[in-house]
């Protein structure tokens, strides 16, 4: 049975609900494999900020739907992104919310976790995945660069070789490989995945709050460095998105993609 039984939709594609002190955020766009639009980023950012401000919330939990975590950015939606990102761009607001979050972030990854679906996991404190989880960051293949400070966080966690393989070579990591390199905590059968992640998040909400928050802050280190790298990446990402190289790569990808 799904761990978060009742979700109040923030948009048609992002559902939010609080259960046992856990702020549950579900990607709910199955017809597009939960690809994220700027509207969805705005909703996610608002939900995280609201959870941070609520004493009733002790942790945040990211969930997918219909056997998919998220296929990453909706490329058609991102084609309208300004070459020079505005300080309040929805995706930047979401990434800032991730970096600024003081409360623990937990994720349950089933199926595809592409692009931001993988890089957001680097900001999470606990990640559980089903055996079918597949982590991939095809930024270079699309003529783009990494985002979400992944060029800083991934080599710090897994070393240069794994980071280069994932971010530049573009290889997908299976759940088993992701566990081996330290990107996830545990592989859990799909039918038990959300319950497992919810149970861990609930345990965190019951810990002495200030001791937990300070321990998390110490473990995360200097978030100003993370924030600076995230903004540097995003400026380059937006510039590359407008380039002929990226436009050709994205067009080729979209033309060969199966129609919904």
Please tag this protein with its features.
three-stranded mixed β-sheet, 46% helix, 10 strands, 260 residues, seven-stranded mixed β-sheet, 2-enoyl-CoA Hydratase, Chain A, domain 1, disordered N terminus
Count of beta strands: 10
N-to-C CA distance: 28 Å
Number of domains: 1
Element string (H = helix, E = strand): EEEHEHHEEHEEHHEHEHHHH
Count of discrete alpha- or pi-helical segments spanning 4 or more residues: 11
The side-by-side strand order for the widest beta sheet comes to 1-2-3-4-5-7-10
Q: Structural class given helices, strands, pairing?
A: alpha/beta
What composes the largest sheet?
7 strands, mixed
Tell me which CATH architecture applies here. Answer: Alpha-Beta Complex
Q: Which of globular, elongated, flat, extended, rod-shaped describes the shape?
A: globular
Helicity level, as a percent range?
40-55%
CATH superfamily: 2-enoyl-CoA Hydratase, Chain A, domain 1
Using only C-alpha atoms, the radius of gyration works out to: 17 Å
Strand content: 5-15%
Poorly predicted residue ranges: 1-7
């Amino acid at each position: 049975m799904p761990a978060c039984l009742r979700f109040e939709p923030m948009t048609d594609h992002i559902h939010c609900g609080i259960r046992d002190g856990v702020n549950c955020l579900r990607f709910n766009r199955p017809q597009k494999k939960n690809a994220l639009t700027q509207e969805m980023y705005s909703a996610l950012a608002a939900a995280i900020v609201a959870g941070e401000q609520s004493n009733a919330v002790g942790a945040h939990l990211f969930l997918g739907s219909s056997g998919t975590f998220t296929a990453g950015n909706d490329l058609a939606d991102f084609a309208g992104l300004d070459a020079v990102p505005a300080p309040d761009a929805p995706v930047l607001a979401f990434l800032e919310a991730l970096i600024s979050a003081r409360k623990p972030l937990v994720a349950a990854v089933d199926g595809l976790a592409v692009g931001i679906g993988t890089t957001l996991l680097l900001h999470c404190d606990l990640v559980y995945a089903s055996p079918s989880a597949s982590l991939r960051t095809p930024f270079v293949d699309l003529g783009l660069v990494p985002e979400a400070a992944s060029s800083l966080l991934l080599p710090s966690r897994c070393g240069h070789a794994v980071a280069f393989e994932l971010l530049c070579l573009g290889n997908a990591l299976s759940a088993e490989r992701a566990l081996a390199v330290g990107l996830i905590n545990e592989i859990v059968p799909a039918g038990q995945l959300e319950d497992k992640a919810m149970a861990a998040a609930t345990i965190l909400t019951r810990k002495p709050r200030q001791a937990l928050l300070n321990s998390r802050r110490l473990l995360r280190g200097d978030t100003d460095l993370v924030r600076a790298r995230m903004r540097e990446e995003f400026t380059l990402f937006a510039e590359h998105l407008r380039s002929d190289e990226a436009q050709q790569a994205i067009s080729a990808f979209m033309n060969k993609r199966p129609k919904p």
